[in-house]
Design brief:
The chain is an alpha/beta fold. Strands 1, 2, 3, 4, 5 and 6 form a 6-stranded mixed β-sheet that branches. A hairpin with a 7-residue loop joins strand 5 and strand 6. Helix 2 packs across helix 3. The radius of gyration is 23 Å and the shape is flat. The two termini are 44 Å apart.
Length: 176
């Protein structure tokens, strides 16, 4: 095939790809209709806690505020009634599981997993814009020193909460 013949096939190939993608229902996520807009205000209600962790709901709430601001430019509202967007949640699972062991059969590493049911409401709307469960986990080292173990678990909770908040934002914007 000559170079001129190749150049004639390029538009035909591009047209074929366009028709193929249009025919299978392909579309881009994060359209203007489901995108969180910079400058909107957000209120994150206190997260209900069905677990044994006394602090997880506070750490998750803080992470939601911080990630909404850092990733999407959403400002925290000073009260719920003034917010453009409202988030409600329920911490349904907080689990610690050993994931690795030493040769002496001692735990070397734990995995902290959190699962939260979340809802996003728009100002004045009773029906949620988005509703679902978001889960995140973080591994952390085990220690025989209880203070170090507690600090490592708290750091893992903060990291998992940031991941959970980021997943929430991405999931909301990709919802169809």
């Amino acid at each position: 095939m000559s170079f001129g013949g190749f150049l004639r096939l390029v538009p035909l190939l591009a047209l074929s790809c366009a028709l193929l993608f249009a025919g299978c229902g392909y579309r881009f996520a994060g359209t203007a209709g489901n995108r969180l807009t910079t400058g909107q205000s957000i209120w994150v209600a206190f997260i209900a806690n069905e677990t044994i962790s006394p602090t997880a709901q506070t750490v998750i709430r803080r992470a939601l505020y911080e990630e909404c601001h850092a990733m999407r430019g959403l400002a925290p509202a000073d009260r719920e009634t003034a917010a453009d967007l409202r988030v409600r949640g329920n911490l349904v699972s907080y689990t610690l599981k050993a994931v690795s062991y030493s040769a002496a059969d001692q735990v070397k590493e734990y995995r902290l997993t959190i699962s939260v049911d979340l809802e996003l409401h728009q100002k004045g709307g009773a029906v949620p814009l988005w509703k679902g469960t978001v889960q995140a986990s973080q591994d952390f080292p085990a220690s025989t020193d209880l203070a170090l173990q507690h600090n490592a678990e708290e750091a893992a909770l903060k990291a998992a909460s940031r991941t959970l908040a980021d997943r929430f934002l991405v999931t909301v914007e990709q919802a169809y």
